[in-house]
Amino acid sequence: MKKSVYDKIKEEEKSEEKKVKKNTDIKAMFSQRLLAFLIDIIILSFITTLITAFIPLNDTASKLYEEQNQILENYVSGTSSMEDYVNQMVDIEYDIAKYTVVSSIVAVVISLLYYVVYPCYNNGQTFGKKLMKIRIKKTNDKDLSMNDLLIRSMVNNSILLNIICIALVLFLSKDLYLTTTSLFSGIQYLVMIISVVMIAFSKNAQGLHDKLAKTEVVMVNTVKEDVLCTSEN
Fold first, then answer.
1. Cα separation of 159 and 131, whole Å?
2. For labelling, which of 17, 75, 107, 132 has a CA lying 20 to 30 Å from the CA of 91?
3. Over the stretch 43-77, which tens digit does the pLDDT of each residue have?
4. Which residues lie closer than 8 Å to 28 by C-beta, 6 or more apart?
């Protein structure tokens, strides 16, 4: 069935309106993104702590946490040096990670729900982004998918690093685990630093995670009404 002249005109108007909307999207400010990031960390930490508190610890894990607290107390009171404190903390880190794998897995699942599933059904917004009135969107204006958010979060929210650490603690010895996780943690910090610089100083304000997922962060409700009206006149 052939389209009428009226239908063709309406399609052209909609196409022009889409272009106008894209051109009037205002990039989120660096300060907005930073505050949203910090707010999300605080909220997620609270939720994760609340939920994992219901996961029972075995006797070994409980003793390890008590030992960790004692190491901290010794350092604060001045009975142990900075070097002793660091060495003891690093040494006990592997044992704690090994006996709290279940809690670590739950924490990863919560992160995926918070950074991937929730914003996918909430206009590309986490709680932090909602408070800062910004959102994630595709650079080509297509619908934001769960895969896009998954790619962003794996890089930007250390989810991939946490998954790797869980896998490593199950299969590697203590020395190899500490060396490997230190390497991956260093890479994660480097990626975050590069992303911060890219967001702050690049023209498109995209971090590495945005580049990989082909997304950008913009302010919500930034399309001017008088601009939209021009496509309807």
1. 23
2. 107
3. 999 999 999 988 887 788 788 888 888 888 888 88
4. 132, 134, 205, 217, 218, 219
Domain span including residue 152 = 24-57+100-230
- DSSP state, residue 80: S
Q: How many domains does the chain have?
A: 1
Compute φ and ψ for 192, nearest 5 degrees: -65, -40
Contact 119, 136 (CB under 8 A): yes
pLDDT of residue 56: 84
What six digits make up the tokens of 132?
Answer: 């800062």
Task: For residue 52, give both structure tokens.
Answer: 């994992």
In a domain, 211, yes or no: yes
CA 17 to chain centroid: 32
User: Is residue 67 included in any domain, yes or no?
Assistant: no
What is the DSSP code (8-state) at residue 28?
P
66 domain residue, yes or no: no
**pLDDT digit string (tens) for 111-167?**
999 999 999 999 999 999 999 999 999 999 899 999 999 999 999 999 999 999 999
Per the rule left: phi > 0, alpha: psi between -120 and 50, beta: everything else, 145 is beta
Cβ atoms 9, 208 nearer than 8 A: no
**111 domain-assigned:** yes
pTM confidence score: 0.79
Distance of CA 133 to the CA centre of its chain: 17
